[in-house]
Amino acid sequence: MKLLVTGGAGFIGSAVVRKAITRGHEIVNVDCLTYAGCIENVASVQSHPSYVFEKVDIRDAAALGAVFDHHHPDAVLHLAAESHVDRSIDGPETFLTTNVMGTFNVLQAARHQGCRVVHVSTDEVFGSLGPTGAFTETTAYDPRSPYSASKAASDHLARAWHTTYDLPVIVTNCSNNYGPYQFPEKLIPTVILNALAGQPIPVYGAGANVRDWLFVEDHADALLCVLDTGEIGQSYAIGGEAEVANIDLVRMLCGLLDEAKPGSVPYADLITFVEDRPGHDQRYAIDPSHIRDTLGWRPTMTLAEGLRQTVAWYLENQDWWDAVLSRDGVGRRLGRG
């Protein structure tokens, strides 16, 4: 199958590209290489005869349409998005133009081609949970940040294009991803790289916010499963079944670093509690029983092993993260409101 992957040089998109190539798919990778895009993420497949890269911004409808017209994809995995909540607080306009209008352009191009679309979204569209319960495919939308509001709008567009134009669309909503190649503005790479540099490890508020963590390779596998066997018009909630409070996650990472690269003092001594993010959602958790029961998918990576592999990858790939540390906003506190 020929797949057009938007955002295929990003963290999750590149994992999808690498895995799809190994499964025999042809890939058209569409990415405009924003600050978070790294073409090095797909270096392992860039010379593969089934791989093509197109540097195109999904906000450019004409250029995007030309890519569709040239390659005639069978399906689209739409992952291109601005995704950092803190950046959305400081500059929401880019999130609207990319996540909403960019998605509109993708849907229109797919409609013109008549190809299937897997629209990849987040559990943040559902808002914040209390101490119990979990998000499902039927949870009402309640976005709390400019980022989650823009993704909620894009989800609604995708479903509307299915209902109104009979475009074959599937929507997925995932929990927090982690793993190799994650850009160092997100929590886990920030902890690892700050610790290695001997710098304070920032933890928002009291660190009590809870997230459900999904290893990125598991997520890529789930998306290809949905592409292959998912029901058109359905939604699938994809979770890692690995809930943990932020402070406990940070301490787990510090412990792994103590084992792998001991410093003069325990890395946990660097933990620094900082002013919380405005409107910080308290808890996310996904009930993945629908995708498990209907498609037979469930995560294979435990949090402990996934974090161990992630720490090892960052220790072994300093050339990759050295090259991105100077990019806009990295290492600077964002999202103060």
UniProtKB/TrEMBL annotation:
<dbReference type="InterPro" id="IPR036291">
    <property type="entry name" value="NAD(P)-bd_dom_sf"/>
</dbReference>
<keyword id="KW-0520">NAD</keyword>
<protein>
    <recommendedName>
        <fullName>dTDP-glucose 4,6-dehydratase</fullName>
        <ecNumber>4.2.1.46</ecNumber>
    </recommendedName>
</protein>
<dbReference type="InterPro" id="IPR016040">
    <property type="entry name" value="NAD(P)-bd_dom"/>
</dbReference>
<dbReference type="InterPro" id="IPR005888">
    <property type="entry name" value="dTDP_Gluc_deHydtase"/>
</dbReference>
<dbReference type="GO" id="GO:0008460">
    <property type="term" value="F:dTDP-glucose 4,6-dehydratase activity"/>
</dbReference>
<feature type="domain" description="NAD(P)-binding">
    <location>
        <begin position="4"/>
        <end position="310"/>
    </location>
</feature>
<comment type="similarity">
    <text>Belongs to the NAD(P)-dependent epimerase/dehydratase family. dTDP-glucose dehydratase subfamily.</text>
</comment>
<dbReference type="InterPro" id="IPR020904">
    <property type="entry name" value="Sc_DH/Rdtase_CS"/>
</dbReference>
<dbReference type="GO" id="GO:0009225">
    <property type="term" value="P:nucleotide-sugar metabolic process"/>
</dbReference>
<dbReference type="Pfam" id="PF16363">
    <property type="entry name" value="GDP_Man_Dehyd"/>
</dbReference>
<keyword id="KW-0456">Lyase</keyword>
